[in-house]
Amino acid sequence: MDHEISNCLREAPNIGKAVFMEFVYQVTDQSSFTGEEYTLQRKTKATFVTADMFVLTFVLLFLQTAATTAFTVSTGSAVVNVPENQGADLKCSYTADFGTPRVEWKFKNLQSSQILVVFDDKPTAKYENRVELYKDGLRFNKVTREDNGEYTCEVSTSQNFGEVKINLVVQVPPSVPMCRIPTSVTTGKKVLLTCHDKDGSPPCTYKWFRNKVPLPEDPSKFPEFKNSSFTINPKTGDLVFPRIAKTDAGDFYCAASNGVGAPKSCAPVRLAVNDVNTGGIVAGVIVALLALGLLAFGLWYAHRKGYFPKKTESKPRVVYNQPSSDYGDEEDGEFRQKSSFVV
């Protein structure tokens, strides 16, 4: 048995993995080894497995590194925040295996309309005097709020392609929002209050106030608003009362903010909530009926008194014809009709 083990150990470095595994299986199945021989067998097994796993791990890491670094396009910042009227750099780098690729930049605005910024290695007409292209990116000399949106850097050769997307956020402070607040409503009606700022970038969020107290988005969580029923959408600025009550009356205004500059508010407007005036409605109906009745009586009375003209009877029309000059004289001995009379 010692001779067999020695031969296997001498041949182990030169045999394949499948043969080596078979050898280990046969040896561990034997039960007649001494403790010393068994120890030698375990050390040899550990040495071979460790060397084999090291080679396999090295190959896998090499392949993974090659796959992840080949033809890669990247950016230093996927979101770029810049104040309006300032310059901005959009970074776009690519690996050397691209060689000398073709680089194009595309822009998609907030309305999802897409245009070219750089084509054929030069800015398009709209951006000709505003941007410049360099090896690792695109530079804006001065950005405006119209530049808000998503920019795509595309790097390509005849056989390879890569791209990266960058969001440009042009920071613009909010202006005074436009608020639509009714001045008088009836209890039980659905009432909508709106608030919107057209200038803020990034888009503003909105907060509503009643009598200088901020209204929560969920009134059910606050005891002082437990009798109120309203919803607030902080992104659109809508304040909705599904069934407004008299306790909801007050001075309302809205504030817009986006983290750039100070928040801006519209002027407060008094919202009055009135009960339904049932007596006034009934009185109005009675007055309308009385007016219709008086009108009908006046028409009947005028007709009875003959104030309206009566219809005239038609007479037959009489047509007279003058005698024609073609008729002969009576001296000719012939009868000629001098005139005609038609009734």
Automatic annotation (TrEMBL):
Subcellular location: Cell junction, Tight junction; Cell membrane
Keyword Transcription set for record: no
Domain of life: Eukaryota
Alphabetized InterPro entries for the sequence: F11R, Ig-like_dom, Ig-like_dom_sf, Ig-like_fold, Ig_sub, Ig_sub2, Ig_V-set
This protein's UniProt keywords: Cell junction, Cell membrane, Disulfide bond, Glycoprotein, Immunoglobulin domain, Membrane, Phosphoprotein, Repeat, Signal, Tight junction, Transmembrane, Transmembrane helix
Region (Disordered): 319-343
Main location: other
Record protein name field: Junctional adhesion molecule A
Organism: Aldrovandia affinis
